[in-house]
Specification:
The complex is a heterodimer of chains A (117) and B (344). By secondary structure, chain A is mainly alpha-helical. Chain A is built from four helices and no strands. Classes of the chains: A mainly alpha (117), B mainly alpha (344). Chains A and B meet through helix 1, helix 2, helix 3 and helix 4 of A and helix 2, helix 4, helix 6, helix 11 and helix 13 of B.
């Protein structure tokens, strides 16, 4: 695990850098607050309602479909690395796997999951 | 003290800390001058001169910008979710910086932060964390423009992340390794066709994957023509509408950091990394040259192409790039099988 140590150090140093930049600047910046400045920006007009509103379900659908295909990608990585050792057997197995996922993809296309209108 | 120094863990940690310091500082300087280069190049493309007042030809402009951001007044919307509002800009910078840990800048163990055997996975994992910064920043601002920018951005980034992940698989099949150092080594072979030396760079063996990778790289870093999260014509400034002072600065830094880290990976995977003519000691120079070319490509594209519409963006990601990347994998697999079958 020793070769992973630099990644951990990168993480710590990057976090310290980001935190201290924000911390230092927030110590020295001027703050002259008033109710106008503290309200959400809506092109200078008084904000209407709150941004915690409902939004289109399309974004949720994209997230679900992403998980489906991302798992496919995760299965493809180890296969790609050991591809040469697996030979023809590995190729056929993976083709079957991709075809099964293509069925799902065609279903999503037919259901117009990727249309934005 | 000497006993402590003789501990192998301590030595590794000290060396790693030294590398972390050099790489992080180098990247911060590179980011400042990439922003300067972008403003200069954009200026000349639009028949202006760009910044030229601070220092020689404007060379001190990045430092003036940083100082300005440091002393700017900071607004936090009263209705914002304060904890997440503060964390989001940090989340934009931290994963972008960590990706540099696995990039092999040159030959030899001294020029790579961490030579782990799953380097590419570390990169993909870290770069995909960037979506949290934008989504959470947009949501925590409690501003409608910011929310819409954050939502668009999360959908865009996860859509293009798929095609990006799949486009790297062809390279993995050729190299047979997830270690970025091994992938660069695998590209060092030079073939001779009619006496002409042909480098073993994977861009020649995986041209489709390279094109997909570069398009998705533009979308992942929210650069034009895929800069919908901050489409200023419709969303003011998108997810960072409510951010000011150094918090805005960190989002800005993170964006350019991502451009550089994704270009580093593109050089490593497709353009042969540090490989090039001449002795191995020139490796770092070759890497820097290729990186500079790709960074110029990013700037060039940004000031050339208009922004896509959202439905065009989703069409391109899901209906063009994803099937193309899958077809590329299948064809590469069959080709490798056929070649190795013919050889064996």
């Amino acid at each position: 695990m020793r070769e992973y140590l630099p990644i951990l150090l990168f993480l710590i140093v990057a976090a310290v850098f980001a935190g201290s930049t924000i911390g230092m600047s927030s110590l020295i910046v001027p703050r002259r607050r008033n109710a106008r400045k503290d309200s959400a920006y809506e092109c200078g007009v008084d904000p209407v309602g709150n941004a915690r509103a409902r939004f289109t379900i399309k974004f949720y659908l994209v997230a679900v479909v992403f998980i489906l295909f991302d798992i496919e990608a995760v299965f493809l990585y180890p296969w790609a690395v050991t591809f040469r050792q697996l030979g023809l057997y590995g190729l056929v197995e993976m083709l079957l796997f991709i075809v099964i996922l293509l069925v799902g993809y065609v279903y999503l296309l037919k259901k117009r999951a990727f249309e934005w209108d | 003290m000497a006993a402590l120094w003789n501990q192998p863990d301590v030595q590794v940690a000290v060396w790693a800390l030294l590398k972390v310091g050099i790489i992080l500082n180098g990247m911060l300087i590179l980011v400042s001058y990439m922003i300067f280069a972008e403003r200069k190049i954009a200026g000349h493309m639009q028949a202006r001169t760009g910044p030229n007042r601070v220092g020689w030809f404007g060379f001190m402009q990045p430092w003036a910008d940083v100082l300005k951001l440091f002393f700017k007044e900071e607004f936090i919307p009263a209705e914002a979710n304060r904890v997440i509002f503060h964390i989001a800009p940090m989340l934009a910078v931290i994963p972008a910086l960590v990706t540099f840990a696995v990039v092999p800048f040159g030959p030899g163990p001294a020029l790579v932060g961490a030579d782990v055997n799953v380097g590419l996975l570390v990169f993909l994992a870290m770069s995909s964390l960037g979506v949290y910064a934008i989504t959470l920043g947009g949501w925590a601002s409690n501003n409608k423009y910011a929310l819409l920018g954050g939502l668009r951005s999360s959908a865009q980034m996860i859509s293009y992340e798929l095609a990006m992940g799949l486009s790297t698989i062809g390279v993995l099949m050729l190299a047979g390794s997830l270690s970025l150092v091994d992938i660069v080594h695998a590209q060092s072979k030079v073939a001779h066709v009619f006496g002409l030396p042909i480098p073993g760079w994977y861009v020649l063996y995986q041209p489709v994957a390279f094109v997909i990778f570069m398009i998705t790289a533009l979308a992942e870093t929210n650069r034009a023509p895929f800069d919908l999260p901050e489409a200023e014509g419709e969303l003011v400034a998108g997810f960072h509408t409510e951010y000011s002072s150094m918090k805005f600065g960190l989002f800005f830094l993170g964006e350019f950091m991502n451009v550089i880290s994704i270009s580093c990976i593109a050089v490593t995977l497709f353009l042969g990394g540090w490989n090039g003519p001449g002795p191995a000691s020139l490796g770092l120079l070759w890497f820097a040259l290729k990186l500079a070319l790709l960074l110029f490509f990013f700037i060039w594209i940004r000031w050339t192409y208009p922004r896509l519409r959202y439905d065009q963006l989703m069409n391109l990601g899901w209906k063009v790039l994803l099937p193309l990347a899958l077809a590329n994998i299948v064809l590469t697999a069959i080709a490798i099988q056929w070649v190795s079958g013919a050889a064996g």
